[in-house]
Amino acid sequence: MKSTSPIERSLPYNGSLDAEEHGFEQRSWSFRLSALYSDNLIAKVLRTAAVYLENNKEIPSQYPEIVPQNGINQGKWESREIDFWTSGFFPGCIYSVLETCIRYPGKSGLPHGAINPQIVVRELAESGRRWSDPLKGQALRTDTHDLGFVILPSMRPRWELFHDQDALKTIIQAANNLASRFDDRVSAVRSWDTFDWHDNVNITSQEDNFLIIIDSMANMELLFYAAAQSGDGRLADIAVAHSRTLMRSHLRKETCVRKGYQGELYSTPHLVNLDPRTGLIKETRTAQGYSDSSTWSRGQSWGILGYAQAYQWSGHGEFLEAACGLAEYFLLRLETAPDSVDRFTTNGTNKPRKLGRFVPLWDFDAPIENSKNPLRDVSAGLIAANGMVILAQCFTALGDHQRNARYLDAALIIVEDTLNLALAREKAHVMETDSEPFKINISGVGERFDAILKHSTVCYNSFSFRKNKAHDHGLVYADYYLLTFKNRLLQMGII
User: Fold this and answer.
1) Other beta carbons less than 10 A from residue 330's beta carbon
2) Higher pLDDT, 434 or 18
């Protein structure tokens, strides 16, 4: 299989090839990612926080999840109940932009001199508190493995930015309840209790089944973080054991190679069912991917992020190897995707520009039904990009600057391509007024679109029940991982 390294593939973007021939100019990353430094990001979060807080009667019970790109709710957030696994991401968006305003005020995008930034900080802090306070009750649950997604995006910054002791207590409580789902016999945390939302699938017995999904790797950070904050090493031990079990159950060795990388390449299935008595694999399935044997792009990205975090917290080299092998395969599949993923634009000039190559298809093995508009999952690319930035940080710490550059460049290219392809045309801005501290104005062409980004896909397989088949829409965790990516770059001093 022919492959190209991400750095080589990006040459037309950074001008290393003839600019006139390819229609590209050499520009700094700050310029290429300038959309990250617009007040559009803060303004859209502020607008959603205010509008949907009103609809929630000041105490949220419903949390934004998707923004349809067509249909009756086109452009407006559709929400899910508080106990749905995505409820933590919108409060996380609030705290991500709040962290930018507090720690990196010059990079917030707020217009200098026109708006008092402390007014915006106070508004974000109050909105964050209102949206995240109800989530504290979710920390009491023992029926889900998604507590990391629900709790950490808001409670971690509440603790780190404001030294909120109640937030730390919530984190530790959630971690202990997640740990209660660990089973010594299989050396893993149970992901789901049942699986019965596919046609002809009815897995309900916990005595006979132990369901684990690759997404669980991204929830292990809750255990690592709580262990570090509380001194309870048992929580970290569980996270390490779970990560090792999934290396056996979920990592599929691929025979292909990628230029510049000597290690194993790995893909991952979505769901593995273990025998709870023996720990042996009973069956491999998918819930959200195209098929049981395909590579669902977001599942692959959860693996990249989860194993990068596992290495960062534990220092176990096997997790670094796993994260790299997953990342290399993800990049290989981007590079070798069908030509129909490429889009060309002139951006009002006579110089054509190619985009879309590094915005992943929703499943790397799914057939493309519409070659003019292939179904993508922007969230998968952004989750993977966050994992690759963590890998870059890890290799910097190891003194390996070549591999630091390899994964950092790949992450930056994915996000640049995502912004060029998927940034919603409608923009929001924070404006000064005489009667109020500030207001949100809308500019640009196109209809209302509440999310920052378009073109994510929750699921699009043939066997999920209809209600689970949301596709080609805005998605709250795509926005969340874009905002966290920005803060990671600022933390590293990249831009």
Assistant:
1) 30
2) 434
